[in-house]
Amino acid sequence: DMLIMVVDVGAGTSDLSLFRIHFNPATGKNMALEVRNASRGIRAAGNHLDRMLIELIIKKSGVTSRDPMWLNIRSALELQIRDLKETLFNDDSVFVPLLNKSEVTIKLSEFLALEPVHQVGERLRGTMTEILESIDESWVNWVMAHPNRRLVVALTGGGAELPMVKALAERSI
Question: Smallest Cα–Cα separation from 131: which of 34, 43, 17, 42?
């Protein structure tokens, strides 16, 4: 007997939906009912972070479009970016050797400090807030009417472990 905000952060989109979870004593099963007008999808997800990381690596390397290896370097990064991003988020930094024999180290704090990366987290939080503010007030009253009812946030998808996604479940809203 609670509300659950499912935040599914995939590669291309992030989808947020609010459900009421209800235990049916007659069947002994939980039922999930989507709250009306409480779903949104936004284009702020893993692929966007991939592109931002590629741009940071290219910028730090000093490689420009005038460099004869530029296209090869970008193409190689495109193929490796998921692994590079995973290493960055797991190890707090990533070392990137480039095809032109240059090397770049990216720190997680440096990446998270980028305004476009920060905006991904803000868009997620803003969408979550928008959903909660758009539902009928009776849902809030319903939760508040019983001490065991609460709003739970469930993080799913490939981006569920990203710091800006985890922050959705850690801070109050």
Answer: 17
Asked if 40 and 127 touch (Cβ cutoff 8 Å), the reply is yes
pLDDT tens across 29-80, in order?
A: 999 999 999 999 999 888 999 999 999 999 999 999 999 999 999 999 999 9
- 142-168: pLDDT as tens digits: 888 988 888 899 999 999 988 999 999
Q: Are 128 and 16 in contact (CB under 8 A)?
A: yes
Do residues 97 and 80 lie in contact, with contact meaning Cβ atoms separated by under 8 Å?
no
Q: Specify whether the CB–CB gap between 163 and 89 falls below 8 A.
A: yes
Q: At 47, which helix (H) or strand (E)?
A: helix 46-61
Q: Distance of CA 48 to CAs 42, 44, 112, 136, 157, Å?
A: 11, 6, 13, 32, 15
